[in-house]
Amino acid sequence: MPFTPRLVYVTAPSLDEARKLAQGILEERFAACVNIIPGVESRYWWQGKLETASEVTLLIKSSAEQFETLAGYVRKHHSYECPEIVSVAAHEISPGYRSWWDEAMMKPSD
Fold it and tell me: According to CATH, what is the number of the domain 5-105?
């Protein structure tokens, strides 16, 4: 089944939470791969104040077709009131990696 590749960025407050989110996302087949990138310093506005936090970034290889389901999963299992969930189109992908991504996005029953 063809799909539209998307890179989805999510931040988490800890490595433990990032790992749990990644595991669930992969078990549900909402993504082909999740990179967990620790040691991110985030600076942002929250409730009228400038904040700084140490976070972990998840770079999720998913699809436009799975985005709403993936975002719902993240909102349900994330500890933040307003988690970052940002999707970016992947316009250019090497053929071999695209082939793997296609295969990895298929559920076993597909």
Answer: 3.30.70.120
